[in-house]
Amino acid sequence: MKMENTSIGNYRWRICALLFLATTINYIDRQVIGILAPTLQATFQWSEIDYGNIVTAFQTAYAIGMVSVGGILDKIGVKLGFSIAIIVWSLAGMGHALARGVLGFAIARFSLGLGEAANFPACVKTISEWFPKKERALATGIFNSGSNIGAILAPIIVPYLAVNYGWESAFIVTGLLGFVWLFFWIAFYQKPAHHPRLSKKELAYIHADGELPPQSLAWSAILPYRQTWTLCLMRFMTDPVWWFFLFWLPKFLNSHYQLDMKEMSKFLIIVYVVADVGSILGGWLSSYLITKGKSIDFSRKATLLVCVLGVMPVVLATQVGNLWVSVGLISLAAAAYQGWSANIFTLVSDIYPKNAVGSVAGLIGTCGAIGGVVFSSIIGRVLESTGNYLLLFTAAAFLFLFAWSILKLSIKEIKEISLVK
C-alpha cells in the first residue's frame, strides 16, 4: 500500500508506529489479569463478586481518567502527558505482583485504569497534529489495531511467564515493556513544527488543511454542541460490546463448546487477528473514499454503515451448531467494531479543532467506559438469571444500528465546527 509520495517524506508514519506500539502494550497490560484469573482465584480464594469488584475498579478509574486526561493533554502536550501516563500504568501493572488480596489488586487495577485512560486520547491528539485529514482514518486504524495485537500477544506471553517463573513475573515483565517504549518516545517525538527530522515538504503536507494553530480552550466551549453529545452517546452504546468480547467471550466458548483454556486460546487469537484486520480496513476504506473525491461526511458515514452491517450477523452466534461458524461470526463482529472504533476516533479530529481533540476524545471515552460498567452489570444479571447469550449478542448487534441512526439524524454534515470561547 502506497501511503504517500516518497518525495514528501514519511516521518509521520514513524510516529504512527510508536502509537501502534503503545496501544499494543496497553492491551497486553490490561489483559494479564484476565488470563491469570483462574490461577489467582484459586490462589487467593476469590469469589466471583471479588473478581467483579477488581474488574470494576479498573473500569471506574478508566472512566475517571478518560474525562480528565484529555484536558491535561491539551494543556501540557502529548509528549509529556503520554510519558507520565505510561509511567503510571507500567508501575501499576508491575504493582500487581505485590498484591496479596482483593484490596491490593483493586488498588493496582484502579491505578492501571487511570494511567491507561490516556492512551487513546493521546493517540488521537497525536494523529490530529501529525496527519492531514485525508490520512487520519488510516493512521487511526493502524494505531488502533495495536489493541488487537496486544490481545493476541497476551495469551502467548502471559501463560509462558506464569508457568515458568510464577504469576508475579507476568505482571513485572509486561510492565517493563512500557519503559522500553518510553525511551523511544522521548528520543523521537516532537511537535511537527519543531521536529528537526521533519522535512519542510512533509510539514507543509501535514498542514495542508490550513487548520488554525491551537489556542486555550475551556470545557464550556465543548459541552453545548450536539456533536459532542452525539459522539458521547455513540461511544456509550457501542464500547460495551468490545468489553463484552474481552471479558465474556472465553466464558461463552467454554459454556457452549466446552473448550478448556488451551483449546480456547487458539480461537481467541483468531478473533483478535480478524479484528486487527478490521481496524486497518475500516480506516483504509474511509480514507480511500476521500481520495476518490467523496466528502468526509459521506466517507465516514458510509464506512460506519458497513461496520454496522458487519456486526449484525453476530446474533446468530449462539444459534449455529458449528464452533468454527460461531467463531467466524464473532470475528466478523469484532472486526466491524474495530473499523467502527477507528472512524469514531477520526470523527473527533474531523469535527473539532486541534486544541479540543484531546478533551473531546477523553470525554467521549469516559462515556464509553461508563457504558462498559453499566453493561457489564447487566450481563452478569442476564446470565445469572437466564444463562442466555442470545439476548446479549442481539443487543450488541442492534446497539450499533441505533448508534449509526443517531449519528445520521443528529449530525447532518460531518465538518469542523468553530468553538465559541
SSE blueprint and pairings:
Layout: H1 11-44, H2 48-76, H3 78-95, H4 102-116, H5 119-130, H6 133-144, H7 146-165, H8 167-188, H9 200-206, H10 226-257, H11 261-291, H12 296-311, H13 323-351, H14 354-385, H15 389-410
Structure description:
The protein is mainly alpha-helical. The chain has one domain (13-189, 221-408): Growth Hormone, Chain: A (Up-down Bundle), CATH 1.20.1250.20. It contains 15 helices and no strands. Helix 1 (11-44) packs antiparallel against helix 5 (119-130), helix 1 (11-44) runs parallel beside helix 6 and helix 10 runs parallel beside helix 14. The longest helix has 34 residues, at 11-44. The protein is globular, with a radius of gyration of 21 Å.
CATH class: Mainly Alpha
CATH superfamily: MFS general substrate transporter like domains
Q: Structurally, how many domains make up the residues? A: 1
Helix content: over 70%
Which value, in Å, is the CA radius of gyration? 21 Å
Low-pLDDT runs: 1-5
Question: Mind telling me which CATH architecture this is?
Answer: Up-down Bundle
Which shape, going by the Cα principal axes?
globular
* Beta strands, count: 0
The H-and-E topology, N to C, reads as HHHHHHHHHHHHHHH
Number of helices, counting only DSSP H or I runs of 4 residues or more: 15
CATH topology: Growth Hormone, Chain: A
Structural class: mainly alpha
Mean pLDDT comes to 86
The major pleated sheet works out as:
none
Task: Give the amount of beta strand, in percent.
Answer: under 5%
